[in-house]
Amino acid sequence: MTADFARVAILLFTRSAEEEGVRKRFLTHGSRADNAALAAQLIAHATATASQVGVEMVCVDSVQQAGATFGERLSGAVRATFALGYEHLLIIGNDCPQLGIATLRQAVAAVRATGAVLGPAADGGVYLLGISQTLFERGPGSNYPGKPSDWARRYYTNCAAREPRCINYQPWPTSTMSRI
């Protein structure tokens, strides 16, 4: 880990491969086991990619998550990861295999510089969410039960309303990525 990237971590927030196999149909004609096997490959790919960025990587899967809503589960994972001593987090999932090492390194630099970064996905969601501990503590926490993209956008909107200088982010990078 370089000094520039110190105190930054990538949080891989995901369901377990087995749960993904039940909840998502990656393969239209595949069984739950086939979908779980593909999910395991996606999780392994995201882990391998994040592990090469030069910052620490923390994985919180559905076995470790607590809460009734997406917002509660994500907020709990973010809170627990910040408690490990990090100042900035990049939160990624397993559903954007085109997300590469160079993009993650750029996002690390961007979140350190601005305190917040969003990677917009082609489907209207997000493939990457970066946040500083300061902004997270000032934000709405787990009050948004909806989709990840709703949580991210409302989080930043709420934060900006409370403290206008905290919302220095640009949807970044300007191009979108596709998620599975």
Question: Can you walk through the features of this model?
Answer:
The protein is an alpha/beta fold and 180 residues long. It has one domain (3-166): Spore Coat Polysaccharide Biosynthesis Protein SpsA, Chain A, CATH 3.90.550.10. It is 42% helix and 16% strand. Strands 2-1-3-5-4 form a five-stranded mixed β-sheet, with helices on both faces. The radius of gyration is 16 Å and the shape is globular.
Record field, number of beta strands: 5
Q: CATH top level?
A: Alpha Beta
Major sheet characteristics? 5 strands, mixed
Strand order of the largest sheet: 2-1-3-5-4
Secondary structure class reads alpha/beta
Q: How would the global form be characterised? A: globular
Helix content: 40-55%
Strand-residue proportion = 15-25%
**Structural domain count:** 1
Mean pLDDT across all amino acids:
80
Q: Name the CATH architecture.
A: Alpha-Beta Complex
* Annotation field: number of helices: 6
- Distance N to C terminus: 30 Å
Given as residue ranges, the uncertain stretches (5+ residues, pLDDT < 50) are 162-172
Query: What is the CATH topology assignment?
Result: Spore Coat Polysaccharide Biosynthesis Protein SpsA, Chain A
- Topology as a string of helices (H) and strands (E): EHHEHEHEEHH
- C-alpha Rg, in Å? 16 Å
What is the CATH homology-level superfamily? Spore Coat Polysaccharide Biosynthesis Protein SpsA, Chain A
